[in-house]
Design goal:
Elements (H helix, E strand, L loop, with lengths): L3 E3 L2 E4 L2 E4 L5 E5 L5 H10 L3 E5 L3 H8 L4 E2 L3 H5 L4 E4 L4 H9 L4 H4 L5 E4 L6 H12 L3 E4 L2 E2 L1 H7 L2 E6 L2 H14 E8 L3 H29 L4 H9 L6 H4 L23 H18 L4 H18 L7 H10 L1
Parallel strand pairs: 4-5, 4-7, 5-6, 7-8, 8-9, 11-12
Antiparallel strand pairs: 1-2, 2-3, 10-11
Helix pairs in contact: 1-7, 4-6, 9-12, 9-13, 9-14, 12-13
């Protein structure tokens, strides 16, 4: 089929490719993660227009050079690329497929990048609708937390067509340090949920063993030094120690604030558990971790970093 020119893109079959550098970015979701990610795009020379239902988030983003829109439709008008990081399956589906959504209002040929953590079936629902409407979609969830978003050191796990992944790289590199093409649509979410289940399990295990050693009289600093120079070394011991005061940059040393909220860990573990159930994959450790983080949330600490589980175990040990 012969290609025909359509404004700023050209069409081959039902797929549309940009014919110039992508510079105009619509960013949906300017919270703890999205605000920093959008700001890093601005730092790399992208023109960013943001949308968030929170006026406070929009005001904070404006200080970083991000212009504001009062709706999703307004945000994506004229965009080359749309980036989103949103809280739930429903919010993502509404944002992309709703009447005021991205797919209905974004220009043909645009690239859509969803960095939310959702069920792998969500991108699989969005991808064909986007393709039918002449736009390109990838799921690109992230790892690295708020610190990674702030420092542009995030890791992106991408599901979708390889050519769309390649096109996304200038934006992903502006916001992160590593980018992985994991496979077809939804594959990025599978990788992210596997990662976060393991993060939750190792975080729980680190808290449990640190609490046990400290309760037996070991100096916390000595115990952590042993773990970090032995076979138990992990991200949870080196970077994210749950015991306050041992790793100055860890959320535990900031009253468990400014990290990955426990309620989000519960959400991700529930998504991973549902995925595992669908394929009958045993997750005994994942199930235990899910229940423990749920207990933390039920006691009113859902807004604290997930490493607050150490405090739960510490308090239980006193009873």
């Amino acid at each position: 089929m012969a290609a025909r020119t359509v404004s700023r893109c050209f069409v081959v079959s039902t797929r549309c490719y940009s014919s110039k550098a992508d510079k105009n970015v619509a960013f949906l979701g300017l919270g703890n993660m999205g605000g920093f990610m959008a700001a890093n795009l601005v730092k790399k020379g992208f023109n960013v227009r943001g949308y968030d239902p929170s006026k406070d988030a929009l005001s904070a983003a404006a200080k970083d050079g991000i212009s504001s829109a009062n709706s999703i439709a307004a945000a994506v008008d004229g965009a080359d690329v749309v980036v989103s990081i949103l809280p739930s399956n429903k919010v993502v589906l509404d944002a992309y497929l709703g009447n005021d959504g991205v797919v209905k209002h974004v220009p043909k040929g645009s690239l859509l990048i969803d960095s939310s953590t959702v069920d792998p079936n969500v991108p699989k629902q969005i991808f064909p609708v986007a393709s039918e409407n002449g736009v390109n979609f990838i799921d690109a969830p992230v790892s690295g937390g708020v610190m990674g978003a702030q420092n542009a050191t995030l890791a992106f796990m991408v599901g979708g067509r390889k050519e769309d992944f390649d096109r996304s790289l200038p934006m992903l590199k502006a916001m992160g340090a590593k980018q992985f093409h994991c496979g077809d649509s939804g594959a990025g979410q599978v990788a992210k949920l596997a990662n976060n289940m393991l993060m939750g399990i190792t975080g729980m295990a680190t808290a449990e063993c640190m609490n046990m050693g400290i309760k037996m009289g070991l100096d916390p600093k000595v115990l952590l030094d042993v773990l970090n120079n032995s076979s138990a070394r992990s991200w949870s011991t080196e970077v994210y120690c749950p015991v306050p005061g041992l790793v100055p940059t860890a959320p535990s040393s900031r009253n468990y604030d400014g990290g990955f909220k426990n309620e989000l860990m519960v959400k991700d573990l529930e998504l991973a558990s549902s995925m595992a159930l669908g394929i009958r994959s045993p997750i005994p450790l994942g199930a235990v971790a899910t229940q423990l983080y749920r207990i933390v949330q039920s006691r009113g600490y859902g807004q604290k970093d997930f490493s607050y589980i150490y405090q739960l175990l510490k308090e239980e040990a006193k009873k």
